[in-house]
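<instruction>
Derive structure tokens from the sequence
<data>
Labelled lines for chain and fold:
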Amino acid sequence: MTSLNGKTALVTGSTDGVGRVVAERLGTMGARVLVHGCDRTRGERVVAAIKAAGGNAAFLAADLAALAEVRGLAEAVRKATDRLDILINNAGIGTAGAARQTSADGHELRFAVNYLAGFLLTCLLLPLIKQSAPARIVNVASAGQQAIDFADVMLTRGYSGSRAYCQSKLAQMMFTVDLAHELDGAGVTVNALHPATYMNTTMVRRAGVTPVSTVEEGAEAILNLAAGPALEGRSGLYFNGLREARADRQAYDPQARARLRALSLDLTGLRSDAATTT
């Protein structure tokens, strides 16, 4: 891994599980780490651990199930730092639960937290990321991917937690490919990955699944995309662990990606923002 002295990294969902390991490792590599989560007590523990190991960190609280709080997180990042070299969209909700739930904004919960929150946060922070180039964006997706049915994106029919999760993770991958094209030549790369299968995390245990991988294994794969020298200048890729792989074919469909982007701009209010400022 390359030295990250003088760099700043934001890791969403980094008060527990693989996110916490990634945040702590980034701290030991020299980065100033912006730790994110909903629970301030747990967040401050991670910050304290990073500082105890000689690193530099701060905690930023936000509930990604509310788009207003995502906007607040972006503003807090801009106030906390004048550069953002690494953004890792790691926060997410797993497959546990048979009942359909909605976010504070009325969107299907997994689509909102796993995808829309990261989409909005990334878009809002892009000016800061681009001025920090060379910079990297990492979307923590999954090998579990299911094509989006644009006639029922919010899954009002035939709902299952697994279907919702897999759709949201493919949406992350589609955004990764789309954004890589948009950022071509800007000095910012964006890649996605399935870090490891059924890591020993709260998310996996809540789903009633016996873990088969460690969070350390997953963290290594995430850090490879965030700071590995072999990924310098490479963008729009999907990795299964440390190996480059292929995502679901819908991720490579330009028309599907355009539909998802248009929907995402509307749902997050970014289209309205652009209309207001022009």
